[in-house]
Amino acid sequence: MQRVCLLGATGSIGRSTLDVLARHPDRFALHAVSAYRNVERMAELCLSHRPQIAVMVDADAAEELRRRLDGQGVEVRSGEQALIDIAADERVDTVMAAIVGAVGLMPTLSAVRAGKRVLLANKEALVMAGQLFMNAVREQGAELLPIDSEHNAIFQCLPAGELRRLGDKGVTRIWLTGSGGPFRERPLDAFDVITPEEAIAHPNWSMGPKISVDSATMMNKGLELIEACWLFDLPQSEIEILLHPQSIIHSMVAYSDGSVLAQMGNPDMRTPIAHALAWPDRIDSGVEPLDLVKVSQLNFEAADEKRFPCLRLARAAITEGGTRPAILNAANEIAVEAFLAGRIAFTRIPQLIEDCMHQTEAHAAESLERILADDAAARDCVRRAIDGGRV
Ligand code: NDP
Ligand code: MG
Known about the structure:
Helix content is 46%, strand content 16%. It is an alpha/beta fold. Helix 2 packs across helix 3 (59-68), helix 6 (123-140) packs antiparallel against helix 14 (324-340) and helix 15 crosses helix 16. Bound molecules: NADPH dihydro-nicotinamide-adenine-dinucleotide phosphate (NDP) and magnesium ion (MG). NADPH dihydro-nicotinamide-adenine-dinucleotide phosphate binds at residues 8-14, 35-38, 57, 98-100, 103, 121-124, 148, 205, 207-208, 210-211, 269.
């Protein structure tokens, strides 16, 4: 029996994870769940999935949840420390890291440091603190399994075992595929008037609002490029981004003998979630079998960095290294938040990030304190640019 802690239980990945867990009560027990302040959803899932512990980071939300779950046998905790504690709880074997954004870093690191099996959806953690994170994985003997569909696909197409020195195993290149989001074909002169509703309406995937906007700017693919560099110990030059509008191939690995291995499936996050939960076994995920006759065509095209400047910014950030990717990520979080709040135009997102990258000094990413300080400086820089009216 694997005992699971689900961080970000009320989100899109959280929901898909609960669905897979509920299909296998013989294999998995839900020990702890967390959310920020969505009490409604949290109360509902606590009653249907019966975890031992529920954390609401927000204190008022925790109070309200306690009231609603009175007498139900669920212990309710609150605060950020509670996230760190449940991720490292000795009664937990597996931690699903599905909090969105930089706030997911500390609890995810806590799981790694406690040597858990860590299912990583929270890509921002790896983008911010890749070197420290991967060092901790090795030092603590944690088992890191990627949930991001592309990285999970690559993992499945690689030879089993150690994920370093892939060149020695004949790997020559990795293709990260991406649908291109809702604006792959939109005329560039109509980008200025893109609304949040249009941006979060992804053609193939149903996801939380932040990653949906990231998919529309393709910063998501940029963050994934950085994520792949750390997970698979590869330089960015060996990772290519390829647009594939159908989202059936989730990524590919090329080998020196000319073989290219692809992982395919319907675009449904329950596949990578079930894969990582059961690895190295295979279990039912509830995902519809792939009908290739119905799909009928798989198309590919090069990614255009003019249309999607965030791709160029992400490559520049990982090439420079140090805290630059953390600065990129923090600037993106603030810009996306402002766009979703209707405060800035869609086209301002990459501009604000680029300006912030010029204005914020990066350092060697030698400590968490350094990373968090540069993250905070980048957030301030973008907030000032927005509040200063230069929008
Ligand atoms: P959602 O926005 O749907 O869910 C986010 C979750 O994080 C919610 O449970 C939310 O709680 C919680 N949360 C938000 N802010 C905080 C905070 N300050 N402190 C603690 N918890 C917080 O996001 P997704 O599920 O879409 O994405 C989660 C992560 O997975 C992201 O890093 C994303 O990049 C990654 N990912 C997602 C994919 C997808 O298909 N959705 C695919 C690949 C990766 P509350 O509801 O209370 O606000
Ligand atoms: Mg992805």
